[in-house]
Design brief:
Chain lengths: ~450, ~180
Amino acid sequence: MSWTTKQIGAMVEPDRAHRKAYTDPEIFDLEMERIFENTWIYIGHESQVKEPGDYYLAQVGRQPMVMVKDKNGEVHVLYNRCPHRGAQLCTARKGNTGNNFYCSYHAWTFHLDGKLESMPAKQGYEGTNLDFNDPEFHMARPARSDNYRGFWFAKLTEGGAYLRAHLGESAAAFDQLIDRAPGKETEVVGSCFRMVQQSNWKIFLENQLDASHPGVTHESTGKSAQQVEAKIRADGKEVPLELSFLSDFARLGHDGWTKFGTIGFPNGHSSLEGYMGLRPDDPDTNEYVRRMYAAYGEEKAEEILAVNIHHMLVYPCNSVQPPLQQLRTIRPLGPDKTLTEIWHFRLKDAPEEIYRRSLAYYYLVNSPSTLVNADDLFNWWKCQHGLESSAREWVSFHRNAGQDIVDGDKTYSAPDTMSEMPLRHMMHAWRDYMTAEKEA
Amino acid sequence: MGSATEILAAGNAQAVADVSVETQLAVERFLYRQAEIIDEKQWDDWLALFGDEGRYWMPSEEDQVEGDGQPNVFWEDTYLMQMRIARNTHPRAHSQAPHNRLCHVVSNVVIESEEANGDIIVRSRFHCAEYFRYEVRNFTGKYRHLLKKTGDGYRIALQRTDLVNREGPYEYVIQWWL
């Protein structure tokens, strides 16, 4: 079938969504067209391309992109495709392409800003319609690319909001990734971990702000961590802070999870308040706070550290955890297949131990050997299979429905609940993207 | 004496040591037994293979020479190994229901060095099939073990496991050591 705008609009109700939003291949294609290839999508951080010629590949919807730094230090986002016969110009995920891009098929070369440089036997093009100044023969550029404080995004269609306006209050995630550094800069560490979820991209985003799942899904992790903590104490040793990242799941209990508010912002962005005690009274933290005071002054430093975001979802592509310097990007591959890129950052001039906390979280939660997300990915895979069934047509988002608190352009979950407000909020934004007239 | 990672990094990964047949056999027997222990999920025996300071390491980058303070696919001391065992065998570890099955084949066992105290660096290749969610996944790669000789046989000071496809992307995750 071909979906009409009206039919798509009817897939989302105030407190439920139709299962085919998660399973239908045509809906997926429309999502690529109307969401991922139509709004701002994360490309990468400027620290991934430090030297002239450094490049890093990224995917926007179905389009292969490359981020590259030129000789003047300017970053460009380009389509990774030769305008001659279509061959991809860069095949390694990252590297340095030297002074130009070189096509391995017919040796066309391109400047680092994507303009056509040359090709062998150039005289063959004399008197033809190939014009070196015609962008048609340059590496294609997205309609727009822009960065927010070094975090690069691309938008493949003209029109709509500029990046800063699109991000709105979700930009706090990127502010926090930088402002928490006493040196006021942040840097990507290593390559990212890449994992494939056998489930729809929306299931991942929904899970991030679903406060009612951690105590259930991660029960085995929380309880096992408590056992190991007890064993370490019995051995007369100090329990490392990072084990609390795991034992929190058991410690909080259902009541605990009601204490963290969620907020919905325009364009589908949303946030979950922090719950982890990441400012303990230990020498490393105190040294970090001292450096923050020295860099910003006490008042400003406290203002920065008081921002308490566990997850910020930058719809539709990022999940950012600023206090632990984690950033996940999703690259949907199909209705039931989603690639995640998982990055972490080092705060300039923070004590090494503060970086180690970020690294420990990156390892325990986000690595391919994760002791946490194994159960999440498994749940999502089961959801995807269950949603293939026609036994029920609807996905329920009823928890605390009708109790959301709307204040201006923000929506707050009802206090002391594990409200499914963010899930409703995201599906409403999804409907708006999917049913809007495509921007000209 | 440096750390186990420094010792492994300083070793010549192309070296072939001239060791006795008895040593070769004892080291091979140790590696085969380790493979059997994980395939049979004998977790007390697994922990006993590692010395108190023993570590299991799977780097995430090809040129990585240190695990400490860097991103890794695995970087586990015996406490984290106990954490993994407790979690994966917990009745509510629903992603381990039904439990997976592992089948390792270890081969190409080459001892790189043998110290006067009997400590060994040995490299080998492995293939591991995992039956999980009613499908078979395959993992293959290279091991390098730093083995400490004790009065009670060898103990692993450091096991480095390099997957051929370490950069990913990973389909799902890896829940047990490979």
